[in-house]
Amino acid sequence: MKKSFYLPFLSILFLIGCSSDDDDVTTPVDPDPVEETPYYEIPEALVGYYEGIDFSEENEELYDDLATRTIAKHTNMLDYTDRHDYLYKADEDPAKPDNVVLIYTGESRYWEEYLSGGNSYDPQTFNTEHVYPQSLVDNTAKGDLHHLRAADVQVNQSRGNYPFTDGEGSYELIDGNKFFPGDEWRGDVARMIMYMNLRYNEPFDEMGGLELFLEWNAEDPVSTLELQRNEVIYDAQGNRNPFIDNPHLATRLWGGDEAQNRWNGEPVEEDNEAPSAPQAVTVSEVGYETLDLSWEAATDNVGVVKYNIMLDGESISSTSSTSTSLSDLTPGTTYSITVAAVDAAGNVSEESDAVEATTNEDTEAPSTPANLTVGTVTANSVSLSWDASTDNVEVKEYDLFLDGEYNATTTNTEFTVAGLEAETQYSFTVLARDIYDNESVQSAAVEATTTEETGNGGGTSAELFFSEYVEGGGLNKAVEIANVTGEEVDLSAYSIQKQVNGDGEWRDAYALEGTLASGDVFVVINGGADIQAIIDASDASLSGAPVDFNGDDPIGLFKDGVLIDMIGVDGDVEFAKDVTLRRKSTVTAPNTTYTEDEWEVLEKNTVDGLGTY
């Protein structure tokens, strides 16, 4: 492990063993000598996590042991997009469970106000701050919750990627290129930066320097919110921030001012007393997959920091408030629920008296789709539409049947059945399915006869066009180009380009190669894709641009340098974030103006149709 950033200090034993009267020995002087603590009295709740680490070791040996443990325990590597599943619970306001506490300002904001992705909640007031800037870390670290915090959008923008510096009072930008987080957040920042050094070998000097963070770690003790975050993140990704568990570990590793020792008396006395058991656990607002839970607060000699929720004897979640909502339950199921209180030292109370609750069961099928109607008919396709069904819970999707056999599923109330034979009569029906897979009866059948073949060998378009667009999770991105001209097409005249955030400038041209048979498609994917169906459909795999688009980056198909088809719109508009777009088979020509009505919108990572048209 690299240690170019590591600043070891001399042990007291070494200083004692050196005589100042010996002219042959020059004794280095530690500017901040630290009285040694040979071991810690680790709280019972943390003994298993830190088992095997010898805390009497010095400097490099203890650093290596802690780093190895922190890395090994990080078993769930979260993508940056996964933060929405955990961050707002980690930053939950203990006084207002539906809110989050924002770093630097300390404001409490409703948790759904985050500015990210396709969130449509209004207003959007906060986003995600990388305390160690994401531009300076690798992809693994970008999603590590230990250095992610909810932050006011404007304050986050003001901080930018600037290093931290000392100051006084509330947060402020100093000299236009350094940031002081505020007195209340100094310790939080220091312990997050120390974690990033321990876990990822990220240097201190780019962020403000180790000496500064040692000062902040000593001056600003661990807060209840930090303790809460450490527990939530531990549950989410498997590892802890040891400097939150005990800030004194930083003193042991790097010296500096004596920091809070949460494991050995001063300034926090050891706490072996468990909280009282929570009382009066009450269930309310029972749904199909959810229920609300509340209880009376437990008491403790120091303070309760969270409550563990047990479902049928298994711990499923925790909260710092005296109420919570349970989700992802099974409809029509009876659960036994208990609650236990946990204090800052990790002492756990006895479980509350159990309460039982039964979720609602849904056996009601949706209404039958009405007014199934035939629209455009071609030699090989028939477009259909129908009235939306209703349901006591929620309609999920519709199944299309062709001559009594299942053909396709859609979430829309219109669909084009393709791949049909010319001059052939077909019968169509449709049924509705709700989110619990209750099916309606099939609609009344409608019939349609396809037309005769056209003169261009069955083709329906005079030019190539985009037929599918995948903007999935991570690097699961692809575009599909269809040839329904009736003739084999030489691809050497065609290229794909993109715009960044719809800025109007086409760039990153990728020239297509080879030929494309009539009725076939050409699929270009991002080489980092990890969904096998995308990999299997690939005709060309690129390491990045132009197949590194996001939902606000238009994609263009060019012929001889001239734009002939386009997905997306000019301007910084998220036209297709985290979705798959599939072109309706009624479309018979490319279009340089993106038209939503030409596309069917499918859920994120839907790739079952990629590679065929």
Automatic annotation (TrEMBL):
<dbReference type="InterPro" id="IPR001322">
    <property type="entry name" value="Lamin_tail_dom"/>
</dbReference>
<dbReference type="InterPro" id="IPR007346">
    <property type="entry name" value="Endonuclease-I"/>
</dbReference>
<dbReference type="GO" id="GO:0004519">
    <property type="term" value="F:endonuclease activity"/>
</dbReference>
<protein>
    <submittedName>
        <fullName>Endonuclease</fullName>
    </submittedName>
</protein>
<keyword id="KW-0540">Nuclease</keyword>
<feature type="domain" description="LTD">
    <location>
        <begin position="447"/>
        <end position="591"/>
    </location>
</feature>
<dbReference type="Pfam" id="PF04231">
    <property type="entry name" value="Endonuclease_1"/>
</dbReference>
<dbReference type="InterPro" id="IPR003961">
    <property type="entry name" value="FN3_dom"/>
</dbReference>
<feature type="domain" description="Fibronectin type-III">
    <location>
        <begin position="277"/>
        <end position="362"/>
    </location>
</feature>
<dbReference type="InterPro" id="IPR036116">
    <property type="entry name" value="FN3_sf"/>
</dbReference>
<dbReference type="InterPro" id="IPR044925">
    <property type="entry name" value="His-Me_finger_sf"/>
</dbReference>
<dbReference type="Pfam" id="PF00041">
    <property type="entry name" value="fn3"/>
</dbReference>
<comment type="similarity">
    <text>Belongs to the EndA/NucM nuclease family.</text>
</comment>
<feature type="domain" description="Fibronectin type-III">
    <location>
        <begin position="368"/>
        <end position="453"/>
    </location>
</feature>
<dbReference type="InterPro" id="IPR013783">
    <property type="entry name" value="Ig-like_fold"/>
</dbReference>
<keyword id="KW-0255">Endonuclease</keyword>
<dbReference type="Pfam" id="PF00932">
    <property type="entry name" value="LTD"/>
</dbReference>
<keyword id="KW-0378">Hydrolase</keyword>
